[in-house]
């Protein structure tokens, strides 16, 4: 058992504001990442989201923090994208010798559109990530709103202040926040809030209560102090820190081409506040290895906030600065790589808890879904819980889609969190290869595991860590494990993800699946089938979900998938509110936006399906815009060869490539068990 002093230091990245000068911050960060790559002998430049535990920023530094932390960009991707955003957003609406107008010098709409485009281009949703992996851009096809909150990403925070009280402490928008007031805020709104300096961009109203925000650059342009304090709150068991603070080259004297005195005063204020914070932190940490500050001291004073065309000047001065600070850079890399030794696993007490509960550290609870406060206890939940904790290390819950498998698993996850203080809880989404990899990447970040390569070693390291007998107890939920081709090795020799699930150690694994074959393969006889709710259970669940209780006595009984009701309730859709505001006779025909137009989808305006089931289509009736053929939605489209319905994988007619599974030469002989009568995918023998 490692002592508290051996817990890896908490790594914090802080980014100043400064308009287009944010390019300087990114060039410095890129150089540092490349130096770390060389020092650790990596074959790739590490992403900041994989190296740092906490990323934050103010103003345009906040936008960069969102790109690096929430959207998980590489520094190279961030530089390219930030240049695009700067070009679109930091162009003055007009030039004049008069003071800047109250609504700001630059177009807030242009900034909003630029951030929305970036969010779609780098959307982290599984569908979009999968599209980009095969070379399809998602900036035009992404249907997601990209909420800023995300429990699986590196903890990210950006600063803003309320317009009504600019002297108050800044508000922190964080990816891990659970408050109701800012629930559902999209990335673009948070980016606007952190960059809404009144001299530059107009303020923005955010959240349920419409709080008006301006950026925190004038008082907190260097957010390091605020971020250090917040990071310590989020990671209380880390006694040591490693802070990387990067400035934007704001000097003592700001000379810009514009004569708008408001901008000049604003930049001077930003420069002054940044220097004061830097001086305080340097005095506090001195020559220790806990705090490093990099900031181009000279050469950028004459670069205006919006001078994106002059980015070459920024690059030149930044490269000169990097040459001048080689010793400081080497010192930073030495201390940073020392605390991210990829051959050393983090402290057991820190990750999984001490079984005796006598030593320092905390367990990890990585549950990306909120607790369902309206959960109705079902007999199956009690039985599956008993199966898990009475000697079975792997248990499976089987049932059709929508019967409540995920909700029961979520209930068990939170039950373990609240009643088993020594248990860590992990949640793995297994409905696609991309979702599985993202889940394991999140676990690796939470466990401070630094892989040798970006993908394979991360999964292997997580498995090795959780398989150790020295690690404290843990519970893993593997949700939506429906596709056997993802779990098991495929005919094309693609690795199945079952090999990355720990099969020993002090852990328990609960699978949810629609497939009995999968359940038998992963849990042998330790599986339970879940059926639809009984009338009594459904009534109790509905009573908990609605708010207008007086309508219930005259409500007819009807069935809805339990996950649909819970999802609509959590998103503020009819499952939780509007159901109590309409005659219940209309419920079976209510659209997803709460209107009474016979299941009219508010996304495309057509009847007959819920908004969640809506996929874009072309003008022609049901014509797929991917293959231009009628008869199926784009999400259901799989490429086929020129011959009608000829599978391009096996060359035979009659099925899509997606449905093709290789078989042996004999008619329908399974190559896994060598028996006739079924495809390899349907084989339950391992």
Automatic annotation (TrEMBL):
Residues 600-616, 623-639, 646-660, 669-685 form the CCHC-type domain. One of its GO terms (molecular function) is nucleic acid binding. GO terms for biological process: arachidonate metabolic process; glycerolipid metabolic process; lipid catabolic process. Keywords: Hydrolase, Lipid degradation, Lipid metabolism, Metal-binding, Zinc, Zinc-finger. GO terms for cellular component: membrane. Pfam families: NB-ARC (PF00931), Patatin (PF01734), zf-CCHC (PF00098). Gene3D superfamilies: Cytosolic phospholipase A2 catalytic domain, P-loop containing nucleotide triphosphate hydrolases, Zinc finger, CCHC-type. The keyword Nucleus does not apply. It comes from the Eukaryota. This is PNPLA domain-containing protein. It comes from Colletotrichum lupini.
